[in-house]
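Milestone M4 deliverable, item 7.
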Amino acid sequence: MQVAASTYYAAKNRAPSARTLRDRHLVPQLVAIHAENYGVYGVRKLWKAAQRAGLDIGRDQTARLMKIAGLEGVQRRKKVRTTKPEASTPRYPDVVKRRFSAGAPNRLWVTDLTFVPTWAGIASPPAKADEMGASPTRTGYGRRLSSQRRILFDSPSTARSLP
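Output delivered:
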């Protein structure tokens, strides 16, 4: 990026903006309020707590300052880890060398396996598509068997049978 030397030095030597100065003042206060509440408050509750403490601060500003300070609220929702790789398992080779383009139809097919959380568990709808732009085709379905193991039904056989 081309920047004139005078512009660079003007920006470097410029005094901090009013927003930067206010942020320097507010961040320690938000960290203290967050710590007083056992570090569990998210944006909405920390914003309300800051208002009760007498700080004139907006919700989006609270979110921005929380990000700057590295603060996070506790999430009650269970995080689903969809993959658990083993170091001893060999990885499949990259046969397309990360070039996802094809010269003609039926030359390169790509697949996608997405894990979708549902009330009953995790659904695994895989899809197969021609890289030239053919519409994705559903090739099978899956379901969660346990927290340690997943199985996909009909995906490999269906994928081989499609053109």
